[in-house]
Design goal:
CS_Sulfotransferase, transferase, Sulfotransferase, about 550 residues, 12 strands, P-loop_NTPase, elongated, about 40% helix, 5-stranded parallel sheet, alpha/beta, about 10% strand, 3-stranded antiparallel sheet, Rossmann fold
């Protein structure tokens, strides 16, 4: 091997030495050229052969004699490979764009259910959030359903499967078999001199016993302990003694604000609290009927010990103490008057959340829950009053997403989650009834956004199977926001509350709105126009039915 020091290129036999640009020229002579003659060489031994080490900047084992000496064979192979990859990429991109445009890449929904799980023991060691892994949609499909025409096909399929079928009410004996302890604690008749449903219960503890020692709300939540510390201090002052026995006044709510989430229930709750005749549970949203009585503290944590009904009744002790003070007053005892104080409860999950039924009640043959929350409430309180606050389900869903999503919130991410949820819902309604899908725990936990909460009419019709229509007041958040005084008067009249002074009314109606959207969520702006159009199409048949049931076209939400 020989090397030209001046140009540092690898030279082969002498006949190619002329290729060295430093050695060319009309007067070139191999014998006179100091490079060719071998002068001033510095020896370097490589592979036991002498080399010039200053000249070795690059060692090539091959020399390409083709392409006129400008390119080597390795460069040629590399260029060919790159060219082939570019052509292949262009072909694939062209196919994907053409297929997406014509809907060719939209694979039918991969989320098709088999049988619903009916055995609670199958998920004893899993949290409710883990059940998403049972039915997971194909991720590759989601990126191809962004366009409106493709998702419209999914919505059309869902719409074609909608049937509003009246459910059969279970009889009272069936309910007793499911919740025997609850029926043993709550009586069938209440005190006649109290507008609110209350009764006296014998207290069998002694003065050294902590009456709230086992209350699950106090045990599992630090923020409630202050409330229970106060209740402990005043508990003994409110025991009623009769014939050497002690009794405590127990109460259930007179009315329930049952839904829906992100529809203004908190604002309604805060304003009603200001009425002198209204009291609420010590905790705004106990979620006892829907979650705590099944042992659900947080959905992601799975099941814990079930909260007994006594723990729920403890939450109304503060209000019960005030009702008892009125009942023991001379006005009530001597003049035959009654207490007009009423208690409310405002868990926004009460209307719609029946997800836990599948783990505790025998599954029905069609995948529908055999018992619903309203069945039990009606069994104890057939005269209860129910308040529902609704809003445009499209805007409700976006507000719900902004409130509960923890990270990476954006209009684009919301769109992706809506598309995925629609696919999941479609997969269910293809095989099961609308009610079975709406109340299916597995599906509801798998959907990235809570589409089902906006299907107001499905839930309302089920409540109307057990309660009369005049026991339910349905309001719109849009009306409440534009004319708060009018909606609050409707609520006062519905609850048969006494008149207010101008000062009291001003305090209730002019207070700032509660639980408004957070500044960081407002900065994200509205949802994408395409997403809004998709959701309008999805909710339209449900809104139409709702407007028919309520005889009010405002519930079509055409102008929002």
């Amino acid at each position: 091997m020989r090397y030209c020091i001046n140009c540092c290129i690898h030279l082969l036999p002498n006949d190619l030495h002329r290729e060295c640009f430093r050695c060319r020229g009309p007067d070139h002579n191999n014998q006179k050229c100091p490079v060719c003659r071998g002068e001033n060489r510095i020896p370097l031994y490589t592979d036991r052969r002498q080399m010039k080490w200053l000249a070795v900047l690059e060692v090539r084992t091959d020399h390409c004699e083709s392409w006129n000496g400008f390119f080597c064979l390795r460069k040629g192979k590399l260029c060919s490979l790159m060219f082939g990859l570019i052509i292949m990429t262009l072909v694939m991109v062209s196919y994907m764009l053409t297929g997406a445009k014509h809907g060719l890449l939209l694979i039918p929904s991969p989320f098709h259910y088999g049988a619903f799980a009916s055995n609670p023991s199958l998920m004893d060691n899993e949290s409710l959030s883990d059940v998403k892994d049972y039915y997971q949609p194909s991720k590759m499909n989601i990126s191809y359903v962004k366009d409106y025409p493709s998702i419209k096909l999914i919505i059309d399929t869902i719409t074609s499967k909608i049937e509003f079928i009246t459910r059969q009410r279970p009889d009272l004996e069936e309910l007793r078999k499911q919740e025997p302890h609850m029926f043993s604690v709550i009586p069938t008749k209440f005190l006649p001199n109290s507008k609110n449903p209350c009764w006296y219960e014998e207290y069998r503890g002694n003065t050294t016993t902590d009456p709230y020692a086992t209350n699950s709300y106090a045990l599992y939540s630090k923020r409630f302990r202050i409330i229970f510390d106060y209740l402990r201090k005043v508990f003994w002052n409110h025991l009623y003694q009769h014939r050497e026995r002690h009794y405590r006044l127990r109460c259930l709510p007179h009315f329930y604000i049952i839904g829906q989430p992100k529809c203004g229930t908190t604002d309604l709750y805060d304003r009603l609290r200001l009425h002198p005749d209204v009291r609420f549970s010590a905790i705004k949203e106990p979620h006892w009927w829907t979650r705590k009585r099944f042992g659900i503290i947080r959905l992601r944590d799975g099941f814990h010990d079930r909260y007994p009904v006594e723990d729920y009744l403890d939450l109304f002790d503060l209000a019960a103490h005030q009702i008892q003070s009125v009942l023991q007053s001379d006005a009530v005892k001597e003049r035959g008057k009654r207490s007009n104080i009423i208690i409310g409860e405002a868990s926004a999950s009460t209307m719609w959340d029946n997800n836990a039924w599948i783990f505790f009640y025998d599954n029905s043959t069609e995948g529908e829950p055999p018992f619903l929350i309203q069945d039990f409430i009606h069994a104890f309180q057939p005269n209860a009053k129910l308040i529902i606050m609704l809003r445009d389900p499209v805007e409700r869903l976006y507000s719900d997403y902004l409130y509960f999503a923890s990270a990476n919130k954006s209009a684009e991410d919301f769109h992706e989650k809506v598309a995925e949820s629609l696919q999941l819902f479609e997969g269910c309604v293809l095989d099961f009834s609308l009610r079975a899908c709406v109340y299916n725990n597995t599906l509801n936990n798998a959907m990235p956004v809570r589409l089902q909460v906006g299907l107001y009419v499905v839930y309302l019709l089920d409540w109307l199977t057990v309660f009369n229509k005049d026991q339910i007041l349905v309001l719109r958040l849009e009306d409440h926001a534009s004319n708060m005084r009018y909606t609050m008067h409707m609520v006062f009249q519905f609850l048969d509350l006494g008149p207010l002074s101008e000062k009291q009314e001003a305090l209730i109606t002019k207070s700032p709105a509660s639980n408004t959207r957070r500044p960081e969520d407002r900065s994200l702006g509205p949802m994408l126009p395409t997403t809004k159009a998709i959701l309008r199409d999805f909710y339209r048949p449900f809104n139409t039915k709702l407007a028919q049931v309520l005889f009010d076209d405002a519930f079509l939400w055409k102008r929002t």
